[in-house]
Amino acid sequence: MRVFPIGVGTAFARRFFNTNLIVEFDDSDFLLVDCGTTASRSLDTIGMSVLDVNNLFVSHLHADHIGGIEELALKAKLVRDAKVALYVQEQLVDGLWGSIRGGTEYTELGRMRLDDYFDVHTYRDGFTLGGIQFSSQPTRHVDGMLSFDLGFENLLLTSDTIFWQEYAVHRAKEFQIVVHDCSFNNAQRVHTYYQDLLAHRDLFNELYVIHYEDHIDRHRPTMLSAQIGVCRQYTDIVGGHSKG
Question: In terms of pLDDT, which residue wins out, 244 or 34?
Fold first, then answer.
């Protein structure tokens, strides 16, 4: 198995693209974890395309996580006449369709629905794909907005979340490797501030940060000195090393 980010930045990143990841579970197939506004360009950079995506997981409905889904859906349907397998928590389905409906409902093929583009797999707390059991639990991102993490084998992707000590103790502790949302801007009240991770480093086993701002370089030595890895774009978290 390989897990590597095709983007590691914030919604407004200029250097690193949106935080979206690939979970490659065999030589021929993978799960795309979120498909943000920059996903198509990020895939193009490494010689891939949204046309290569057969499986998609959606963590929540901000544009840096779903802004590329319209292109993915239209190209899959109109270019290769295929449906992408969509893994989405049951409470997110209606909101997801509402978010992409404006650009996908009416086409030259007629009026479309979400399940015309996707094989929709809704779940309550997990799903199985490629022989791997994935678990997914709520995080705390924006008040009133649903957001879900993704755990599998020995790794947890927190997706967007504030720091939440109970979550770290009872959820993250289940996993050897935690890839945690992180902001270096204290004004960000909907992401985890890096000082909270430094103060609670002992709650995690192997810890990496992702979804960070473009000025990460000034903070990198601080994180590494605390044995917190900084995810790098296009560099394996599993199947290689992303620290540094």
Answer: 34
Buried b (16+ CB within 10 A) or exposed e, 124-133: eeebebeeee
Tens digits of residue pLDDT in 91-121: 999 999 999 999 999 999 999 999 999 999 9
CATH number of the domain bearing residue 77 = 3.60.15.10
Distance linking the first and last C-alpha atoms of the chain: 21
pLDDT given at position 28: 79
User: Residue 240: its pLDDT value, please?
Assistant: 44
240 within domain boundaries: no
Range of the domain at 123: 2-230
One-character DSSP codes across the chain: -EEEEEE-B-TT-SSS-B-EEEEE-SSS-EEEE---TTHHHHHHHTT--GGG--EEEE---SHHHHTTHHHHHHHHHHTT---EEEEEEGGGHHHHHHHHHHHHSEETTEE--HHHHEEEEEESSEEEETTEEEE--B---STT---B-EEETTEEE--S----HHHHHHTGGG-SEEEEE-BS-TT-SSS-BHHHHHHTGGG-SEEEEESB-TTGGGTHHHHHHTTEEE--TT--SBSS----
Residue 149: band (very low, low, confident or very high) from pLDDT cuts 50, 70, 90: very high
pLDDT 10s digits, 195-209: 999 999 999 999 999
